[in-house]
Amino acid sequence: MSLFFITGTDTEIGKTTCTAALVQAAAARGLRAAGLKPVAAGQELREGRWVNEDVAQLHAAQAAGLSEAEVGPIQLRTPCAPHLAARLEGRPIRRAEVLDALRAPLHKLDIAFVEGVGGFRVPLDEVAAWDSADLARELAAPVILVVGLRLGCINHALLTAEAIQARGLPLAGWIGNTVDGQMLQHGENLATLRALLPAPCLGAVPRLAEPSPGAVASHLEAAALDRLLKLKDS
């Protein structure tokens, strides 16, 4: 099966919606696809049960029969950095637990998109000094970078790309997701990112009134996505 790690230039930039869009796009090409979020922080009470919005969105996007617990095996209630939420809740995040839970459903899939937490270097295990970049390296997974298009995005994107490559991981592609609809020089920023990031652009998403996975998927570049999924040779 194929495995990709999804990271972002920051938190709250639409990384989960972009991951769900990739899942839907892969499924539309006949692949058993799912997005997995092994560590998620922040839950709200809905109809008597605690729900993490990111996990719920990824679970809804897949049609491979995975449970919510398989999509999001470690869910913390407090909406903050996961190592801090784990400390507050007395539930340490351990490397072996994360990797075992993540790998358990992979036999059901042709392709999995593993979403990290926030940006590329978010602490997970305080004791072992283990972070989300280490998780990507453990998986030896090509990385897809979601760039939040707003002021400062070029610097954030290039620094993240450097951090990915410094760990020996390939940057497989990137998605530009507009989080600031009033961003100055939007097109010029995109052109600069296309020129400087060492990977193909998989899509440039405008500011959407209703940013559903389907709406985002409609802005993915089909040819680049097909090459990523190795459905076409060129």
UniProtKB/TrEMBL annotation:
- From its record, what is one biological process in GO terms? biotin biosynthetic process
- What general EC class does the enzyme of this chain belong to? ligase
Pathway(s) served: Cofactor biosynthesis; biotin biosynthesis; biotin from 7,8-diaminononanoate: step 1/2
So which cofactors does this thing need?
Answer: Mg(2+)
Q: Which residues form the active site?
A: 37
GO cellular component terms listed in the entry, alphabetical order: cytosol
Q: Which UniProt keywords apply?
A: ATP-binding, Biotin biosynthesis, Cytoplasm, Ligase, Magnesium, Metal-binding, Nucleotide-binding
| Cross-referenced InterPro entries | DTB_synth_BioD, P-loop_NTPase
Residues reported to bind ATP: 12-17, 54, 115-118, 177-178, 206-208
Q: What is its EC number?
A: 6.3.3.3
- For the ligand (Mg(2+)), the binding residues are 16, 54, 115
Localization in the cell: Cytoplasm
Catalytic activity as recorded in UniProt: (7R,8S)-7,8-diammoniononanoate + CO2 + ATP = (4R,5S)-dethiobiotin + ADP + phosphate + 3 H(+)
Q: What is its main location?
A: cytoplasm
Reading the lineage from the top rank, the first entry is Bacteria
Q: Mention one GO molecular function.
A: ATP binding
Give a short account of what the protein does: Catalyzes a mechanistically unusual reaction, the ATP-dependent insertion of CO2 between the N7 and N8 nitrogen atoms of 7,8-diaminopelargonic acid (DAPA, also called 7,8-diammoniononanoate) to form a ureido ring.
The UniProt entry, under NCBIfam families, shows: bioD (TIGR00347)
Query: What family name appears in the similarity comment?
Result: Belongs to the dethiobiotin synthetase family.
Fetch the PANTHER family from UniProt: DETHIOBIOTIN SYNTHETASE (PTHR43210:SF5)
Report quaternary structure and partners: Homodimer.
The protein, known as: ATP-dependent dethiobiotin synthetase BioD
Q: Which organism is it from?
A: Inhella proteolytica
Starting at the broadest rank, the lineage of the source organism is: Bacteria, Pseudomonadati, Pseudomonadota, Betaproteobacteria, Burkholderiales
Q: Gene behind this chain?
A: bioD
